Protein: Redox-sensing transcriptional repressor Rex
Amino acid sequence: MEEKEISQAVISRLPRYFRYLSELKYAGIERVSSQELSDIMKVTASQIRQDFNNFGGFGQQGYGYNVEFLHNEIGKILGLDRTHHLIIIGAGNLGQALANYVNFERRGFLFRGLFDNNPDLHGKKIRGIEVQPMESMEMFVKDNDIDIAVLTIPKTEAVTVAEQLVNYGIKGIWNFAHVDLNVPENIQVENVHLSDSLMKLSYNISRFELDNTK
Amino acid sequence: MEEKEISQAVISRLPRYFRYLSELKYAGIERVSSQELSDIMKVTASQIRQDFNNFGGFGQQGYGYNVEFLHNEIGKILGLDRTHHLIIIGAGNLGQALANYVNFERRGFLFRGLFDNNPDLHGKKIRGIEVQPMESMEMFVKDNDIDIAVLTIPKTEAVTVAEQLVNYGIKGIWNFAHVDLNVPENIQVENVHLSDSLMKLSYNISRFELDNTK
DNA sequence: TAGATTGTTAATCGATTAACAATC
DNA sequence: TAGATTGTTAATCGATTAACAATC
Structure:
């Protein structure tokens, strides 16, 4: 069967659909039309239908979409029906914060290991998991079926550590280091560049003020 | 003078240009052509020229772009030539991690206050700044010329706190809460939805494996 | 059956890329 | 002046929106 490639623009919207559907489901709402979703989510009904139809028909003419079914299907598309094992590289403030983030577990992202170069941190426990030296990483990844690595280390180290992780068999990298990683295309990278995000905010604040002085 | 609206697609690319130009500048490189930038950044030279020309001509035919000048101009566009005063609402792990993030200061984002509902945290100091109760927020924002609020509180509180902050005169919100805020359009919101990002990574990992079993 | 709403095709809009004249 | 490379217009590509036939 020929699968058409789904654009990243569509993918980016899926988690937001998923979130709103969770809420509707939680509120006990059984069905929803693209028009109703459009009203609460502030996107066009047309886009909603197009997006869903990338993955096959989830709705029914004259009825709309069953909330629970749709929620479940989008979850499956996002791979939330499976379990991911993740390690965090870099036990600084951000690494520890993410390690403590219990909500990820709920969606199947299981925090399994935490690594850092700093010997002072070794043995320190976060949510029951000890910080280990970087040297233990290879063995740990291989022994524990780790598929996602979270990089919260300085950019100077990030590129080489990423390459190592790829060699150890990792499948995806959640990259918080402020640098572009260079990995084979079979490895998925999702960047969270916080300072980029802050700069965008800064731009929009400045631009808005400029617009208003005209 | 008529200013054409710049698309957010262009804005999103500016911080990355800025980053690469910082590196070139730091490496002592004086000039760069759109083609050279294209090679290292893996975007088309055409896009680079189009992007820059949204803001007027920064280059010179036959020569290319002066790295330092271009770096500086993009910094100005991003509003990095001014100072922002920010407060963080929510002194949990993530809030503390961001408060400790010294790099933002370098770009003119000055961390000024930290607020939390939890009395156990009140008085605790992060980088010399005491956690204050939420009740002190209003006065503090007004007295200290705060223009950016960072929301690292649970989504249940985020919407109302955002509304309060808007009333206190904040200009921009950096929102880490997993909810869409509802603020007037003169208030800039930049969302960092970590779990959305993780879901995208999850999708891409799943999708890649699916593609390979075909 | 009549009404509602999807799935899907067609039209539009916007963003990216290509091409080249302008000019340093 | 000749060569290089921008700035900018035109062409293409892709994503969004509109429209409506299919169908529950």
